[in-house]
Write a structure and sequence with these properties.
- With 110 residues, the protein is mostly helical.
- It has 7 helices and no strands.
- 32% of the residues are buried.
């Protein structure tokens, strides 16, 4: 998302009150640009905010598949798995992947 500020501003404009519109916007973007990992990552965030954790996991995994060196996606999926789904063992490989890509990441070390 950091590399695509237009996506962020569009999602900010939709706000947390209209997650369905944000999801629709992202799905349109993904249909037109399926190989943009930031769109999948943003969809993961929307799904997480909607309480659709497993859909969020799937979207984050697709972002990771498209951009294996994107530490933020690993961190977001790890936090979702460990904190929201209470599955620390499932989250651990993602935290390790963050540290492999960003050894100084204090959040992943915690």
């Amino acid at each position: 998302l950091d590399e695509h500020p237009g996506i962020v501003s569009q999602l900010d404009a939709l706000g947390q009150d209209d997650l369905a519109a944000a999801e629709a916007y992202l799905r349109e973007g993904i249909a037109a640009n399926p190989r943009v990992p930031q769109l999948h990552r943003a969809l993961g965030r929307v799904h997480a905010a909607q309480g659709r954790a497993e859909d969020a996991v799937a979207a984050y995994n697709e972002a990771i598949r498209l951009a294996p060196d994107l530490p933020a996606a690993y961190l977001e999926i790890a936090d979702l798995l460990s904190q929201r789904l209470n599955e620390p063992a499932r989250a651990l490989p993602f935290y390790e992947a963050v540290l492999t890509r960003d050894p100084g990441n204090g959040i992943a070390r915690y």
